[in-house]
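Quick review question:
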């Protein structure tokens, strides 16, 4: 009977459920985006390794009260510090030094004015995604001598040389020619650390031809992992001791470097996720509130229109509970239909975004259930008062009513 009532008033039904549709769409769309970003971030953090430490000038997490001017004057990590830690640490199992350069590059096909060049050591692949599709990794000798060799990301290789054979070709960085010894597998976008696909990798000491490795422009950092029989905390304590010793910091002076961990990234983005979630619930909540009032209003109108019908049903033996459930079901049906349309819009949006920006926003089963539960609760809250009013009508008085 509730379903028949909704079908007989199609326009009113459509207008009523629009508020619920917008509310469910807003909430579930935000939850879907956050879940997708969280998955990407967690995958990126996992790729860094839970036990890795990253030593650099700046911390990965800031708050409003952090004295940023102290960090501006800090020295960057140097290649000599990398060698010092590598030679004197007892807890380091793996270590790499990384620096950045943006400069002009060219091949026989194209020229780029601002190509990102990453200077690395042989252990770089032990810390970050770095799978070689063709060719090889740099040798230790090439890294120590800063040889003119390079490895191209997947897209960089295609952009510079197309589909021709790439290994053995040369590319110019600035005015120097580099021999290409490797090409990486296609990685795709990494929301946290970007992607290797468009980058060019060189031995880190090669960058000294263009830039000071410990300059702010190079943004250098040292990455370390502990030996199997040591914990991350053991490694952190020893690295801190050795760096303070190398930089000759007095006992009472605070560290002029930061030892970052992957968990710091999680903490940094968690606050952003909470704010996004809260914003989604607030926007969706207002839409649900409007939709709920709309459903309640329509239910009151529906009861007034069907007062005689209610009286007849009661005269034929229908109990208060039957009348209450009839109108409550009608309210819940309205809300669930609006919720399902909202979920359908989220699904369509996720498919469109995947094609437009090549980023997956899957509508999860948990979010579908969440949307249906929210719609159901909204329908119950919006319809309970009108349904109670209908169930308490006197049958004799109800049959006398003329609409």
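Suggested answer, residue by residue:
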């Amino acid at each position: 009977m509730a379903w028949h009532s909704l079908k007989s008033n199609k326009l009113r039904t459509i207008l009523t459920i629009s508020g619920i549709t917008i509310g469910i769409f807003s909430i579930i769309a935000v939850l879907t985006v956050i879940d997708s970003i969280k998955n990407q971030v967690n995958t990126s953090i996992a790729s860094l390794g839970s036990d890795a430490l990253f030593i650099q000038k700046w911390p990965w997490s800031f708050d409003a009260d952090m004295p940023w001017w102290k960090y501006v004057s800090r020295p960057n990590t140097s290649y000599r510090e990398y060698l010092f830690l590598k030679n004197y640490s007892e807890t380091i199992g793996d270590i790499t030094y990384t620096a950045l350069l943006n400069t002009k590059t060219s091949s026989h096909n194209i020229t780029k004015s601002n190509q990102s060049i990453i200077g690395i050591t042989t252990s770089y692949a032990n810390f970050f995604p770095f799978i070689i599709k063709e060719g090889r990794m740099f040798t230790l000798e090439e890294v120590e001598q800063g040889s003119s060799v390079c490895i191209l990301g997947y897209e960089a290789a295609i952009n510079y040389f197309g589909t021709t054979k790439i290994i053995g070709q040369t590319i110019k960085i600035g005015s120097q020619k580099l021999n290409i010894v490797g090409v990486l597998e296609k990685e795709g976008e990494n929301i946290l650390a970007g992607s290797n696909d468009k980058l060019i990798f060189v031995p880190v000491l090669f960058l000294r031809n263009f830039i000071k490795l410990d300059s702010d422009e190079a943004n250098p950092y040292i990455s370390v992992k502990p030996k199997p029989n040591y914990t991350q905390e053991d490694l952190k304590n020893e690295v801190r001791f050795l760096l303070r010793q190398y930089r000759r910091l007095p006992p009472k002076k605070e560290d002029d470097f930061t030892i970052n961990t992957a968990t710091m990234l999680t903490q940094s983005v968690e606050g952003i996720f909470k704010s996004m979630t809260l914003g989604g619930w607030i926007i969706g909540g207002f839409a649900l509130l409007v939709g709920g009032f709309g459903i309640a209003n329509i239910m009151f109108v529906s009861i007034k229109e069907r007062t005689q019908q209610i009286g007849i049903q009661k005269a034929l033996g229908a109990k208060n509970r039957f009348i209450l459930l009839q109108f409550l079901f009608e309210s819940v049906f309205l809300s669930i239909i609006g919720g399902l349309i909202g979920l359908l819009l989220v699904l369509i949006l996720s498919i469109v975004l995947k094609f437009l920006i090549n980023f997956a926003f899957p509508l999860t089963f948990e979010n579908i259930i969440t949307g249906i539960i929210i719609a159901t609760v909204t329908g119950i809250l919006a319809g309970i008062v009108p349904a109670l009013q209908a169930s308490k009508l006197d049958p004799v008085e109800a049959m006398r009513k003329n609409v």
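Why it works: The first helix runs from residue 2 to 8. The longest strand covers residues 92-106.
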